[in-house]
Write a structure and sequence with these properties.
alpha+beta, 107 residues, two-stranded antiparallel ribbon, 3 helices, 6 strands
Length: 107
Amino acid sequence: MSKLRNVSICLTDLKELIKEGHSGITKGKNNDKLYVSLEIWDKDEKDQYGQDVSVKIKSTKEKSEEEKVKFGNKRYLGNGWIIKLNAGEQEEITPIQLKDIADDLPF
C-alpha cells in the first residue's frame, strides 16, 4: 500500500524567513530561482487535529544551532497527514487560487 503525505505550509512565515536570510533558502547556481530546503517527518502519534506529518525549514549544518536560537518556532512551517492509498488509487487534488497572494511574494 502506498502512502501519500499531504502538507500545508505557511507562505507568510516562509516569506519572513526569506527576508531574514535563513540559510535554508538558496539561490540557484545557474538561475535566479529561490530554493527552500525542508525537513518533513512522520510523527509517532497524531496531534489534536489528527495530523501526523510536520514540516520545517532545514538550516545548513554550519548555521543550525545559531538559527535554532534566532528563529525558534518560526522554523516550523506546517503540518499534514499521511494518506494510505490502495494500489492504483490516486487522491484527487483540487487546486486553489493563489492569485491574490502571489503578487505579494518576494519571488
